[in-house]
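Pilot study result, target chain (472 residues):
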Amino acid sequence: MNRYQQLADDMARRIAEGTLRPGERIPSVRHACRSQNASPSTVLQAYALLESRGLIEARPRSGYYVRSRLGQTLAEPPVSRPGTDATALTVSDFIFDILDSARDREVVPLGSGFPSPELFPLDRLARALAVSARRLDPWRSVTDLAPGNDELRRQIALRYLSAGVSLSPEEIVITSGAMEAINLCLQAVTRPGDLVAIESPAFYGGLQAIERLGLRVIEIPTHPREGVDVGALAEALDRHPIRACLFMLNHQNPLGACVPDDRRRELVSLLARHDVPLIEDDVYAELHFGEPRPLPAKSLDSAGQVLHVSSFAKCLAPGYRVGWVAAGRHARAVQRLKLSTSLGTAVPLQAALADYLHHGGYDHHLRRLRQALASQTARAIAAIERHFPPGVQLASPRGGYFVWIALPPGADALALHRQALARGISIAPGPIFSATRGFNQCIRLNTGHPWTDASERAVATLGTLIRAQCGG
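Predicted structure:
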């Protein structure tokens, strides 16, 4: 870790612990140089990093001050309280209708599920792809079928090792994106009619996969900051024949919640006692705003019951559709399902990503990406604080690029979606994240695109529409 990152992390820790409080002035650059034995450029880099994370702000001719925490002026939404009965899903057509609106490039993409492609090293990846295609051994069309390219799986295993997870490349199956991995995992551990535990709200792609496979769901109460309620899950496991869990423990979509380490240990232990597999959708793990990276549940798994799913789509290569699953004791079943459905993932893309991970400065790219997302999220939340009416509640994320908002009484997210779209703005209304089409007073906004005047105007327009709905 570079010296400026160490200084930034030390300051961030003091802010998190309350030693430095919102509104207080932090040490001047000159004072920090003396006390930390650092150069002015190092201190300025550290302060720029803290500013990009939304932790401090520069005031003209006054210095740097601790910023009010993201969304601090807004109340946090309550823990969700879904019903306790199993549900058969009929949500796919409804979700597709909503999501089609987010594809228009002329629309301000606050409803998109993707970050801006401008944030990724696509030129460098294209060069790696061209080189890989020229050098490609024709036999790779056979040898790189499932479980996938050996070097790419080795590089992914090294990434796990750097995150504190020791596993063999043999456990890893390369897939065509995280969605295929989730589908394969569900097929490996369930049968049609089985019951799957999900968060409430939950990622709509998981809901669609569960519906397609003829499974039912039980929704588990979920905290907007600390994620799935492990106590409620324990009660559900005692009452229902749950065959698998599909959870996001890091920067959950749509809430942005991150399960604390002690709850994570409790969760893995609970599922081990019940012999219930956990499909851990961890596509946002690399997009944390602070240090260190949250640990995956996979790091606590001694029984091979965690199927850890991730992808390069959100952190490196959107559009390449290359993901993977570290499937534990279910790896062979997942591999066979992959072979029987699509044989393998595009061979040149696997080779190009393996080359980039080996030579391309992935960690440098991730640092820049995290800084950009943290800065964009801070600006989006500040705009929401300025433009949205009283009574709005906001789940303040610690990573990723989504903000979950509970609207005041009288608001209608589906109507707001239609009204906003007519004005060239997309949003993601809450019902697409629910097995029962709940959360109609909630919306998810995307902060993964550079913040522009158009973004600011879009949030102001949304604020006006919400006030009109709520009679204000």
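One observation from the pilot: The chain has three domains: 3-66, 87-118+364-469, 120-361. A full batch analysis is planned for the follow-on phase.
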